[in-house]
Amino acid sequence: MSKIFAFTDLETTGLEPDESYILEVGWVLTDEDLDVLLPGRSFLVDHGERRAEVYAAIESNPFILNMHTENGLYEALQAEDAALWSLDEIRDAYIQDIKTVVGPYDTVHLAGYSVDFDRRWLKYQPEWRNLFTSKDFGVQIHHRVLDLSSFGMMYETVGATIPTSENPNPHRSLEDSLDALQSARAYQADVRKVAF
Question: Within the chain, what is the greatest distance between any pair of CA atoms?
């Protein structure tokens, strides 16, 4: 049995899933050696008739507005030719990618920075919930996650230097997923130095 890591990141209009919106979902899948199994992907979320509410939510929060203006997400969502996807369609793409790489005895784990945030948001969505609670979709995400924030806290407790990487466009889902992967590789390399 081996592990598949789904480095996953969501961009949202706020912190609480019952009062905010998902703007973008991205991921990159790796094996347990952190070798990429499929190219990473990201999807802009289509909110249909609620689009005006989503834009209002972004515009009402100066921090969110500034962040998603600087990284281009706000503009990308509003572009006339924007490729927008429903959460159902994004979930189906996610599942298909996982099914492409997972073996019959592999476990699939979410990975990333403070990834429980992303897990909580996805579990809140009716379109995604069963991916975490059953094998209704043919795969199931394991309850254990690889949270790189926890590694960072442990490094701080011993005074170790926390690995950093260069993220060219923070707070975009694919870029943050790839950034988390780079940090995971740095942590893994440090652990290997000590363990072996």
Answer: 56
Mean pLDDT of 78-97: 97
Task: Give yes or no for a contact between 2 and 32, defined as CB atoms under 8 angstroms apart.
Answer: yes
Phi, psi of 30 (to 5 degrees): -130, 165
pLDDT value, residue 1: 83
Residues in CB range of 19: below 8 A, 6 or more apart: none
Could you tell me which of 13, 41, 60, 30 has the C-alpha nearest to residue 171?
Answer: 13
What are the C-alpha distances in Å from 159 to residues 15, 153, 193? Answer: 30, 10, 17
Domains of the chain: 3-195 (3.30.420.10)
Q: What are the residues facing 41 on neighbouring strands?
A: 27
Q: Round to whole Å and give the CA distance between 169 and 176.
A: 8
Q: Whole-model pTM?
A: 0.96
Angle, CA 87 vertex, CA 86 and CA 90 arms, to 5°: 90
User: Which amino acid type is present at position 20?
Assistant: S
pLDDT for 188 beyond 70: yes
Query: Which residues, listed in sequence order, are joined to residue 30 by a DSSP beta bridge?
Result: 5, 36
